[in-house]
Design a protein that fits this description.
By secondary structure, the chain is α/β, with parallel strands linked by helices. It has a single domain, classed as Rossmann fold. Helices cover 40% and strands 18% of the residues. A five-stranded mixed beta sheet has the order 2-1-3-5-4. A two-stranded antiparallel ribbon has the order 6-7. Helix 1 crosses helix 5.
Length: 185
Amino acid sequence: MIGLGNLCRGDDGAGLLVARRLAGRVPAGVDVLELDGEPAGLLTAGERVEAAWLVDAADAVRAATPAGTILRFDAGVRPLPAPVFAAASTHAIGLAEALEIARALGRLPEHTVVYAIAGREFGAGDVPCRPVEAAAGTVADAIRVELARYRAASRRIAAARGSWEREARGDASRVQTGQRDGGET
C-alpha cells in the first residue's frame, strides 16, 4: 500500500493519512509506504509486487465532487481518468502518467487499485479538512477489507494450482509406467 502526498499542503496529505492509519494494522508481508507525493517514485516503489493499493488526493473542483468524496479506480485494467488526475501538479509527472509509464515498462502490478480522496485545501501550511480526515479512515478500512479478500483469493488460486499440478504430475507418472485408468496398457 502506498500513500502519496504532502501533509504540509493540507488535503494533499490524504494518502499519508491513510498510510499512517494502516501502519501496523495490515497482515504480515504487506508493506505500507509513504511517498512525498512525487509520483515518479512509484516506478521503483512498485517493483516486484503482486498487487498495489495507492491513495492520493484529488482536487475536488477538478473531480467535480465535494471534499472528502472517495473515488476508487482499477488502474490495472485501464488508465486513470484525466479529469480527476489532470497534470495540475508541482511534480515533474502526475500519478496517472507515472502509472502509464509503469504499465509501458511492464512494472504495473495487474492488481492496482487507486483511491483518490477529493480535497479543497492545498495551500502551504494548510491542515487537512475534516471531510478528508474522515475519508482517510474510511479508505483505510476499505483497503484492509480488500487486502483480506485479495489474500484469501490468492490462497485459493494457489491451492487450486497446486492441486492441478499434482494431478498433472500423477497423470504423467501413470503414463510413463504404462498404467491408465487403473489398468495396464
